Amino acid sequence: MTNTIRAEVITIGDEILFGQITDTNTQWIGTELTNIGIRITRKSSVGDQTDAILQILNEAHQRAEVIIITGGLGPTKDDITKKTLCTYFGVGMVRNETALALVTGFFEKRGREMTDLNRGQADLPANAQYIQNDWGTAPGMWFEHDRGDGRQCIYISLPGVPFEMKHLMTNRILPKLQNTFALPIIRHKMIRTIGIGESFLAERIEAWEDALPSHIKLAYLPHFGQVRLRLTATGTDDALIDRELAEQTALVMPLIQKHVFGFDNDELETVVGRLLTDKNMTLGIAESCTGGYVSAQITKVPGSSAYFQGSIVSYSNDVKVKQLGVSPEILSQHGAVSEETIRAMAEGVRHAMGTSAGIATSGIAGPDGGTPDKPVGTVWIACATANRTVTRLLTLGQYRDQNIQLTATYVLNMLREEILNQ
User: Fold this and answer.
1) CA 182/CA 180 separation, integer angstroms
2) How far apart are CA 410 and CA 403, in angstroms?
3) CATH of the structural domain 268-421, one choice from 3.20.20.140, 3.90.950.20, 3.40.190.10, 3.30.930.10
4) According to CATH, what is the number of the domain 185-263?
5) CA nearest 17: which of 56, 44, 42, 47?
6) Listed residue (359, 189, 361) closest to 284, CA to CA
7) Which residues are bridge partners to 42 per DSSP?
8) What confidence tens digit (pLDDT) does each residue in 76-131 have?
9) What whole-number distance in Å separates Cα of residue 161 and Cα of residue 140?
10) pTM
11) How far apart are CA 178 and CA 47, in angstroms?
């Protein structure tokens, strides 16, 4: 029989609180723990202060069976995790000879002199199980502690350096957790939608959602014009869970088919690339307000050179005229942000690049540049193929970065739909 094992992740370091580094560790740890059936219930960040760390440890052990700590294991005085753990557990520090040999070999191999601070990396709290770090000098540590309610709490301390942490988790910690606990199976199925708002989507699938089995939960994850539907199933039978997720996906698809562009790890630019490849089509891009962002999304995909010919960032009207062939009269009469101009841009880049399809963006991303007739957030997009040219007016918000990202999403989806219509 399996029990629900709850985990909390604590990141330590002033640099995280000050915003000087981005914490990517907790996201990765959360994914990996979920994959083996451990539920993340809380993530916390705390600075390099002993009292603050002790307080959050005291709180976490009342809520979780697994507490994972990252950071604060370096050799300098501001790295206080080990000393704080000694205080927390009421133990002293002892030198681990295996850890010392590894640290010594690390420096000898690189021809560097060891200092006492470096040797101190081998000093661990007396109750710690040493977890060897093959890629650095800061060891991992595993602690087993009685919660006081008859259940054991596992504390795991890991380096904050992402590649060291990931190596330790993958090769040491995750297998050890699986051997320690009888874990349930947790599976996710992601249905990726576009072109429909979260509330409209929820209304459309309400009856299906209400009929979901109790062990299958649904979450709505909106992000820049997309909504991901995440189904999470819990159980003990791999095959049964996979079959149930497939059945529920099949039941909901007729309700939302028009808006589904992919599943699980599919990204919009990847799906577009597959469609271009399958249809033996090529692509050229003309960008004004997005400044190359759409092209960057396309070229994130490995192998995109097979279908992407190039782009023209026509930020000025002069480039629109000379490089894309937009008529000066169109610009004079209708302006750069207009249906007439965006149509000419999409058709112009398709002709200039000799491609099967051409897409274009032109708008007022903000925060300045708007007028009463064309306020900030006014954007035109277009897609030109041999069959036709389609255009669309977007009315977005006041925030520049958001407008650029939303425009890229909408124009790539326009391209996707046009390819499917070929």
Assistant:
1) 7
2) 10
3) 3.90.950.20
4) 3.30.70.2860
5) 47
6) 359
7) 8
8) 777 899 999 999 999 999 999 998 998 888 888 888 888 888 888 899 999 999 99
9) 12
10) 0.78
11) 30
